[in-house]
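Project channel, design review

CF: Before we commit to the Richelia intracellularis HH01 constructs, I'd like one complete example in the thread so the newer folks can see what an input/output pair looks like. Taking Glycogen phosphorylase.
RD: sounds good, go ahead.
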Amino acid sequence: MSTSNSRVTSVLELRRKLPFPLRGLADLAYNYWWSWSSNSTALFRDIDPQEWEVCGHNPVSILKSAKYERLTQLLEDPSYLEHISALEKEFDNYINQKDTWVNRVAPQVTRDNPIAYFCAEFGIHESLPIYSGGLGILAGDHLKSSSDLGLPMVGIGLLYRQGYFHQQLNSQGWQEDYYVDNPFREMPIELMKDNQGNPLSIELIIRQRIVKVQIWRAQVGRVSLYLLDSNREDNDPIDRWLTGHLYGGNQETRIAQEVVLGIGGIRALTILGIEPSIYHLNEGHAAFCTLEIARQEIECTGKSFYDIEDNVRQKCVFTTHTPVPAGHDVFSSDLMDSFFAHYWHQLHLSREQFLALGARRLGDPWEPFSMTVLALRMCRTSNGVSKLHGQVSRKMWTVLYPQLSEKEVPIGYITNGIHAPTWTAPLMADLYCKYLGSGWKNHTIDPKMWAKVDDIPAEELWWRHKILKERLIAYTRYKVKQSRIKRGEEEQRINATNFLLDPNVLTIGFARRFSPYKRAYLLLQDVERSLRVFGNTQYPVQIILAGKAHPADEEGKRIIQRLVEWYKHPELLHRVALIEDYDIYTGQKLVQGVDVWLNNPRRPLEASGTSGQKVCFNGGINCSVLDGWWCEGYQAGVNGWAIGEDAHTSDQELQDRIDSESLYCLLEEEIVPMYYDQDANGIPHRWVDMMKASIRTNAPLFNTNRMVTDYVSQVYVPEISTSVKPILAKFKV
Ligand SMILES: *Cc1c(COP(=O)(O)O)cnc(C)c1O
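CF: and here is what came back for Glycogen phosphorylase:
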């Protein structure tokens, strides 16, 4: 393979361990490309299916622990060997492909000066558990599509020793949280070293101590993701935990982590010899990076902060994700003093000048330091993540632009999408190969290609969907059974999982973080009615739930508990299931197998939402509040349902009643009758038509290839664009 010259130590070590014909697996194992290529999971899983599950679907770990005897046994199977060499070839072609979209439209973005994409979390795969939810998944999908499109990019994030917490429900339905150590050395990541073989490290001053931070690299196709880690023996024991947990700890932990991400991230790029052309701040967490870019420039040129400020701004772009003021990170001036007293001198700024960079209102000594304000002030462009969220953000931040009207506030929008190859079930991808063309993954933004979905015979779409649904149900039974065994429930309850859910029944999915604004309790507003709908014996409905509440979110935990109490009603015995410890794998099974995806957030708090988009690529249908992306995707009577339509009120209780009533009406009057309107062969033709519409209308819009091409033409390299949305404006205070 021509990638051999760039092979890193860990890959070489692993290759040496493997029998000759299996060595290509080592290269695949260290590049997450395998996770979205055509069906390579089987290659790793078949080595040892049980161990594959135990190690959390980690290909490096499975290869390292594989017995030689087993490996040689696999060698006896010509189809296994053929599969490996086919994938090796595909990988080689992918990595070395010259004719990419970016080479054609924006050749000025080069490997020498890539885009640096900063984010506090990345959801690449369940075997790299450094994500909590939507923000991380979006970041992961952004890197994958950038790789697919040939956009030179590096990611910058943190490598959390214990990642995000794990969830277990006790017998009272109360969420218990626990953490597990990530075995870095067994993971598909590589520690960056210098020529002498010592770990590369950078230094930061945090809480008056020097902290050394080392750098790992995960390979995501053509994109390198650099992850910072303070867990080194030469650090103070407290500082070794700086990168311990994602979104754990208090405000002090939070600011310390954001210093590592922002300031540490820039220093890491410098020591790695990477000179980005653009810095993309995905959410405000990384906004300190703008200060460090400025500091380096001041150090080099001796100029003042205000002289180079605009240079920094030309290189930085910002995406905001939070539609409520309380959701934005702010730090008290005390905290800022304790973390930055040594730093503002290096920018040649006074304390007041420095703190003003993050102040919503100038001249108020109690005004906390806002990461979003810093980002808005220091970035050339800013955008929200859906059309509605753009509006909400402009309104929220008018305070920063007193001379502008709300419409003129320079915050635009680029609607989120999902990475189609990651979220489309292999059975559906295979169907698209057959009817849309084998290169469908390269044309996901072409509506004409997606129009061919109408050519798929109803029977074929339906049987594939039925298989995916059966798979989801089998998986759900298995997970629920494991949880019941773990809780020590009685045998009868454990065996009852064999009858949980029914593949012939209309199946709803509801999975997301259990933040109160997501209103999982909406289903329970009218318990009697819910029992009539879900417990209906003639036209039953079933629902699969999953999601975590943040460890500090008592209200979220109470919502989970109420759901658990609800499904103990005997009518719901086989109709409701909750899968614990939601992660990417469970997410995939869910979005690929459900008939209907339910999303009922409190509008407009869902900045975009992406899980409903994943469902569309698998023929699922959305039933959602007109918030986030669904405002743009929904076509009445064509591709799904809208809860509450346009009835908006600021009275939350009233809104809950309106939306709950609307949800139950939709179920009773439209969704259930349409699903059970089946022909003699059990095919619901009207339903299948809507499945096709769901794919045809949504797929070309809500994928990350469309999203990344928008970022390229509107944000990263706007000079190539012919239709720039109004998100470029100078910041003036
Ligand atoms: C897609 C995804 C999310 C995002 O969910 P939304 O409710 O759409 O914001 C969160 N968690 C996981 C595991 C996902 O796959």
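RD: helpful, thanks. The radius of gyration is 26 Å.
CF: Residues 133-134, 137, 512, 582-584, 587, 609-611, 614 surround pyridoxal-5'-phosphate (CB under 6 Å).
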